[in-house]
Amino acid sequence: MNRGTPVDRYYINKFLEEYKNDIHGRCLEVRDSRYGQQYASRIEKLDILDIDTSNQEANLYGDLRKLDKIPDNVYDCIILTQVLQYIDDISSALKECYRVLKPGGVLLLTVPAMSRLDPKAPEYWRFTADGLASLLDPIFAKEKTHIKVYGNVLTGLGFWVGQATEEFSAKELDYQDPMFPALITARVIK
Prior knowledge:
Number of helices: 5
Largest sheet: 7 strands, mixed
Distance between the termini: 34 Å
Shape: globular
CATH architecture: 3-Layer(aba) Sandwich
Strand content: 25-35%
Helix content: 10-25%
Number of domains: 1
Strand order of the largest sheet: 3-2-1-4-5-7-6
CATH topology: Rossmann fold
Oligomer: single chain
């Protein structure tokens, strides 16, 4: 962050911009409103969920694996960026996302294929496109799931050693090599 925009954030922004029309109505984001605020004009209500009760930006406190304070079919969109690697029981978290999404609601999800480990919190997973599909398929309809990878060997290695987006050309950043992803995304419709 102190050198510029992290490479994964560049790809997350590209992904969310591609699907910005899905970000509307009542939305849920985890930990902070970093991405929801970018699309605030289309959002009627943005809820911020965190398990950490000291997070003053959150208005909902709970565990994504068991959202018992949230009724079924509430959200038009869930923005879930770089969260699942911190959750030991991903299946439960995805089932809860499905449950709280309205019919036709959209889950916009990003996960790391590669990145350094977080020194502040335990991480459990790194993902592949096939692995993410295998987690989503039992819960969401396969035909309503679109998975896309971002990155290539150059930007992935750069990201891993701490280079910033500003140190790459647009051509280098926008070349996508499915064999060397840095980030995996999914747009999933309930």
